[in-house]
Design a protein that fits this description.
Distance between the termini: 109 Å
Shape: rod-shaped
Order of helices and strands: HEEEEEEEHHHHHH
Largest sheet: 3 strands, antiparallel
């Protein structure tokens, strides 16, 4: 019965723990709230003081009570010098209680409730399971191995005889051609002209004499002989002209490999 009355009680300003306005007219205008410690049954905050036409002063306080009952205002005010305001008399600040007057401290009866089969924790677990099952096909689809494309990488173009011979010819013109470079250059030239003019069975050393007189092969051979004895360099245009016959045939026979 007491618990039912307690549940039906509606807190109002001035009840325990709730602030309210409290106005009172006093003879002096210099009262101040007395400093209190944390065990005080009431906190008194002064909002404003207004002097009336009759010379008295109206105080507006905001008290907050922590113990129900009537609290003497004089116990919470002091003069500017700290002395108690005993001349106020027996003015009271009432703090209401949220408990019924006949409440003796009975506890509410606890009635255990069955754990819900739907909702709360079980509902959350069910939702997560559904989301996981729905997302599994998507994960399998996204994680499948993509077919390897059989696109072959484009092979680099086979260099022409002119491209393979150019650094060697430039070195020969400058007098810097090494023995291995000279052997490489001779092998490239032999491979080229063996395919073009000289038969596979003819010795290259025999064919060189006739190649020196050939309209295309002759200029480079004669230039190499000249640079061998008098290296003096050559312009890019001269080298381009000497390599022109070799520019259109790629080194595919493996001669220059």
């Amino acid at each position: 019965m007491a618990s039912a009355q307690f549940a039906a009680a509606v807190p109002k300003p001035g009840d325990i723990g709730l602030e309210r306005d409290y106005a009172v007219t006093l003879d002096r205008g210099d009262y101040q709230p007395r400093p209190m410690d944390d065990r005080t049954p009431l906190i008194l905050r002064l909002e404003r003081v207004q002097q009336e036409k009759d010379g008295r002063f109206t105080y507006v306080f905001h008290p907050i009570g922590f113990e129900p009952g009537n609290h003497r205002l004089a116990d919470y005010l002091v003069h500017p010098d700290g002395t108690p305001a005993v001349e106020i008399g027996d003015l009271k600040i009432e703090v209401g209680s949220l408990l019924p007057a006949d409440y003796q401290g009975e506890l509410n009866k606890f009635t255990p409730q069955p754990f819900p089969w739907f909702g709360g924790y079980r509902m959350a677990l069910g939702g997560l399971a559904v989301l996981w099952l729905c997302g599994l096909p998507a994960l399998i689809w996204l994680g499948r191995k993509k077919p390897v494309e059989n696109a072959e990488e484009a092979a680099p173009p086979v260099p022409s005889y002119a491209e393979r011979m150019r650094p060697l010819v430039e070195a020969a013109a400058a007098g810097n051609l090494t023995a291995s470079g000279q052997a490489e250059l001779e092998r490239l030239m032999s491979g080229y002209w063996r395919e073009k003019l000289v038969g596979a069975d003819q010795r290259m050393t025999v064919a060189l004499a006739s190649l020196k007189q050939h309209a295309e092969a002759g200029p480079l051979l004669r230039a190499l002989e000249r640079w061998l004895h008098h290296p003096g360099g050559a312009s890019r245009g001269e080298i381009d002209s000497l390599l022109e016959p070799y520019r259109h045939l790629a080194v595919e026979s493996g001669v220059g490999a």
